[in-house]
Amino acid sequence: MPFDDLIMHPVAIDIKESLLLLKNRSTDYIYDIFDLDNNNKKINECFMFGQGPNDFIYPMVVPSNDTNIWIYDQPNANLREYTLHSITTEKFPRVVKNLRFEGAVLGKAAIIQNNNVLVSTNFNPAIRFRLYNDKGEIEDSIGKYPELTTSNMSEIEKIMNLKNDFTTNFKDRIFICYYYTDFIEVYDYQGNVIKRMHGPDQVEPVLEQKNAGGGFVGASSVRDRTYKCYSSPVQAGKEVFALYFGELYQDYQEKDSKILVFDWDGNPLRMYELNIPIFTFTVDEENKIIYGITNSPEYRIIKFCY
């Protein structure tokens, strides 16, 4: 896919209206902004890594169905709102709204109804998600992890084996998929399970606790037993897309990328086998285009029509 400027080292990709946002590493600015309606022209680069008031440590563009851009800085549990105009014209865009969440260490965020925020929790096997109001205050905690084969695992092993990602339709559904098992779940916003499904390969999660040194405990893959399964679930209107690999972890080379498509009740709809491997992607559902990032053999943006 041709661009009018170099593609640097993108590790995440998002789309908002006609704008493609590429998050980079090892570059002066975090985000490169391209206009898809203007011959993929690079129109801005913005934000820097750091500890300053306008900087980010680990930023993520947050899914939302409004016209602004929300960026979540995970280590600081800090969510900032920006206008599209500022993102496209300023190196350090002005903040419209700044939220700091109370509570435990948090994961990924999404904006839902009435500017409330849904945030996944990290290192908390008893709680999957927290619901926050538009002031950053906890309104509710919902969801529990599935048992699968984790009943005999330590708490660290359970948390690492059930590492997951989610997306939402912004109305009443949360779609969850798992990195080390081919398991999906769908919840409503009250924490009720709509669907749990294991497949297509019936992979069990197998990571083992390991002493990482310095008093830290982690978990590592087990040769010939640990699989890489799902990643990167993306909201696409009435559907949800997710990357699927189904490969042993030591053999994983992003060579067999597939995208599985579900409805918001967790029913499988179709599968796309990609002729170029990608490691993350976004979807333009209006124009039926998938934009993916590959690093094989170099960093490029790949455009798939569906």
* Helical segment count: 2
- CA distance, first residue to last residue: 16 Å
Rg, Å, rounded: 19 Å
Mean pLDDT: 89
The helix/strand order is EEEEEEEHEEEEEHEEEEEEEEEEEEE
Q: Please report which band the strand proportion falls in: under 5%, 5-15%, 15-25%, 25-35%, 35-45% or over 45%.
A: over 45%
How do the helices and strands line up, and which of them pair or pack?
Blueprint: E1 10-16, E2 19-24, E3 31-35, E4 41-46, E5 59-62, E6 69-73, E7 78-82, H1 84-89, E8 97-100, E9 106-111, E10 117-121, E11 129-132, E12 138-142, H2 155-161, E13 164-168, E14 174-178, E15 183-187, E16 193-198, E17 207-213, E18 216-221, E19 227-236, E20 239-248, E21 258-263, E22 268-273, E23 280-284, E24 289-294, E25 300-305
Antiparallel strand pairs: 1-2, 2-3, 3-4, 5-6, 6-7, 7-8, 9-10, 10-11, 11-12, 13-14, 14-15, 15-16, 17-18, 19-20, 20-21, 21-22, 23-24, 24-25
Task: Write a structural description.
By secondary structure, the protein is mostly beta strands. The chain is 4% helix and 47% strand. It is built from 2 helices and 25 strands. The strands form 7 sheets. The chain has a 4-stranded antiparallel sheet with strand order 1-2-3-4. Strands 5-6-7-8 form a 4-stranded antiparallel sheet. The protein is globular, with a radius of gyration of 19 Å. It starts with 9 loop residues before the first strand and ends with a strand. The model has no long low-confidence stretch (mean pLDDT 89).
